[in-house]
């Protein structure tokens, strides 16, 4: 599903190049559940954002579903992301002036899903995540944990081929965290490929492969 070849990411400041990722080579097969671990500043989130086509590598090749992503324009990358990837952000990334219902509806609108099907999918998702009572609230009316639940719900509502999750249970209590990880496990058993970034050994235990990053390199 994913092949990264000699991926580098750096930021230039006049004469100094600061490397975030160095010579990353990685293959992830369809149906895997992979965890990326490492200390803060190791480049985990940057790697996840590159795989999610929300950021670009400075050098190297990225192949996704037989597409050479490194050769695509921004619009084509956006289309690939929209149709195949669900992203759970560490900082939620909910749209502030949309209600919970409307935030969940947004990815369905992008995929041009019909109104009746949208309503059904949103109703099922609100129920599944126990947030029916929150559907008319705005993000600033929710706790951090509730915003995180909505963020996860929005990522899975389109039934994407690939879910990328950046510290998916970071703001949840233990019970909520376990429920989210159990959901990821079930989605994975049903064929969804999942890549998570986490510091949690408990969350990592749900995956079938752990990749350790240190100073931008895979150990």
Q: Quick summary of this structure?
A:
By secondary structure, the protein is α/β, with parallel strands linked by helices. The chain has 7 helices and 10 strands.
What is the CATH topology assignment?
Rossmann fold
The CATH class designation is: Alpha Beta
CA-based gyration radius: 17 Å
Tell me the strand percentage band: 25-35%
Termini, distance in Å?
Answer: 22 Å
Quickly count the helices: 7
Q: Would you mind describing this structure in some detail?
A:
- The protein has 219 residues and is α/β, with parallel strands linked by helices.
- The protein has a single domain (2-218), classed as Rossmann fold.
- Helices cover 35% and strands 27% of the residues.
- It has seven helices and ten strands.
- The chain starts with a strand and ends with a strand.
Topology:
Layout (H helix, E strand, L loop, with lengths): L1 E12 L2 E13 L4 E5 L6 H8 L7 E6 L2 E2 L5 H11 E4 L11 H11 L4 H14 L15 H13 L5 E5 L7 H16 L3 E5 L3 H4 L4 E6 L2 E2 L1
Parallel strand pairs: 3-8, 3-9, 6-7, 7-8
Antiparallel strand pairs: 1-2, 1-4, 4-5, 9-10
């Amino acid at each position: 599903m994913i092949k990264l070849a000699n991926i580098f990411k750096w930021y230039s400041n006049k004469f100094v190049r600061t490397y975030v990722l160095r010579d990353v080579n990685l293959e992830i097969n369809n149906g895997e559940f992979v965890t990326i671990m490492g200390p803060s500043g190791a480049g985990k989130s940057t790697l996840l954002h590159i795989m999610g086509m929300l950021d670009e590598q400075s050098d190297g090749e990225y192949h996704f579903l037989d597409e050479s992503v490194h050769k695509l324009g921004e619009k084509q990358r956006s289309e690939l992301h929209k149709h195949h990837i669900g992203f759970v952000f560490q900082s939620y990334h909910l749209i502030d002036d949309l209600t919970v219902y409307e935030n969940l509806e947004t990815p369905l609108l992008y995929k041009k899903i019909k109104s009746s099907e949208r309503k059904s999918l949103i109703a099922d998702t609100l129920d599944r995540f126990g947030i029916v009572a929150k559907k008319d609230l705005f993000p600033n009316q929710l706790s951090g944990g509730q915003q995180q639940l909505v963020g996860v719900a929005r990522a899975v509502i389109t039934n994407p081929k690939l879910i990328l999750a950046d510290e998916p249970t970071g703001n949840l209590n233990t019970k909520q965290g376990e429920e989210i990880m159990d959901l990821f496990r079930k989605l994975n058993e049903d064929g969804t490929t999942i890549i998570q970034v986490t510091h949690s050994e408990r969350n990592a235990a749900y995956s079938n492969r752990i990749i350790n990053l240190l100073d931008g390199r895979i150990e």
